[in-house]
Predict the structure.
Amino acid sequence: MSRQSDDSNAPLNDAAPRNSKRTGELLEAAFLHKAVGLGFRVTKPWGDSERYDFVLDSGRRLWRVQIKCTATERAGGYHIQPIHFVYGKNKVVYTADDIDVLAAHIVPLDVWYVLPVGALAQGTSLRLYPDDGCKAARFEKYREAWQVFRDEEAGEESIGDGEESEPVDDAIPLCFARWRPVWKPRFMGR
């Protein structure tokens, strides 16, 4: 008695409605395809508790990547919200403590914007104009800017907030420098 749109095994087509979970899965597959096709190594964190969707290995460092997408054009541009929800605070903009890069996909045009977290203003909305719908489009320099992952300086400038940080152990990847385990897993009674 289930409807086809509720059946997780039903094929997807443009006429079938998609839920946000399915859309997210398709977006993750599109990012994985694009990034691996460009020669990057990509890892998906286990579970969905992290603020980032992927860890991208550029060969020089690891990048925490949050991906977002949109398919609806409004006023000549596409709207992306660089936010996440925090209980008790509602919408919170991603910061360098959360991610290193936001990858935004314009679905109907198959266009990606690769924005270092430093490029995200404290606003809760980004307007992207891939069809030249705006003369003062702020984010056009990030359209298909996959070189952000290869340019260590671009990432460093976007990650830091101008303050000098503590020295980091070279054995710990930069994106995990703040993470320290508080317990050691015990297996089989050892």
